[in-house]
Amino acid sequence: MKNSRYFPMFVDLSDKNIVVAGGGKTALQRTKCLLLFTRNITVIAPRMNLELQEMGKAGRVNIQLRPIRRSDFDNTYMVIAASQDWKLNDQICKVCKEEGIYVNVSGDKEESDFYFPGLCIADDSVIGIQTGSADTSRKRELREETDQVLTRLTKKWKTEDE
């Protein structure tokens, strides 16, 4: 079993290639989160929800409506295995581990190299929240409280700078 605490590492994703394998709700959520930090996202799935397709049409992400291939991971920094096929997610994870690619496997914390934290963002400040608890309400409560503090501080700093 992995540690319940993780090192909070902030990474510049602006020039890193990211692949999201899957076209459903989780793939959409992960893609929206990543779009806050980069535009180098390719979403690959044979079927995709309408919002992801619209993001592709708008040029926000690269959409590939087809099954994922091993070659899709060439020159990739990070992969999100968010398909609804657990066997496929496992295969993606194995390839990523072999190739030294960071991988997040939706629904499988044990296999994931990193988690998606609760995010608090105000101006150029970013705070990531992760709890060791399986209770997601704790993370949500901590994120909401932290977000309020960050928002208050950001307003204060803006006033001081004026």
TrEMBL record:
<comment type="pathway">
    <text>Porphyrin-containing compound metabolism; siroheme biosynthesis; sirohydrochlorin from precorrin-2: step 1/1.</text>
</comment>
<keyword id="KW-0627">Porphyrin biosynthesis</keyword>
<keyword id="KW-0520">NAD</keyword>
<dbReference type="Pfam" id="PF13241">
    <property type="entry name" value="NAD_binding_7"/>
</dbReference>
<dbReference type="InterPro" id="IPR028161">
    <property type="entry name" value="Met8-like"/>
</dbReference>
<keyword id="KW-0560">Oxidoreductase</keyword>
<dbReference type="InterPro" id="IPR006367">
    <property type="entry name" value="Sirohaem_synthase_N"/>
</dbReference>
<protein>
    <recommendedName>
        <fullName>precorrin-2 dehydrogenase</fullName>
        <ecNumber>1.3.1.76</ecNumber>
    </recommendedName>
</protein>
<dbReference type="InterPro" id="IPR036291">
    <property type="entry name" value="NAD(P)-bd_dom_sf"/>
</dbReference>
